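Sequence in, structure out. Go.
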Amino acid sequence: MINGMGNFGLFFEFALVAFLLYVRPLNIALSTRAIPYAHFAVPSFSFTICIFFYDEIRKVFLRRGMVKENGRLRLKGWVVQNTYY
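Output:
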């Protein structure tokens, strides 16, 4: 969340979709209708939970592979490629 332009793009896209879906005159002009809450939120919550657990498990494997060499932390193991910085 450090990238300011990425944050702006993320929130702008969310606001644009919400604006196009839930503003009544645009629904009439674009021949669309609002998505019911159950259809909008329930599938996304389950996907969000899967992404959260995947990311937490990934971080555990990354932290196990950290080794201190010459006063610097390096990642070793099957999780990272053998690249030298």
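Check: Strands lie at 66-69, 72-75. The CA atoms of residues 33 and 52 lie 31 Å apart.
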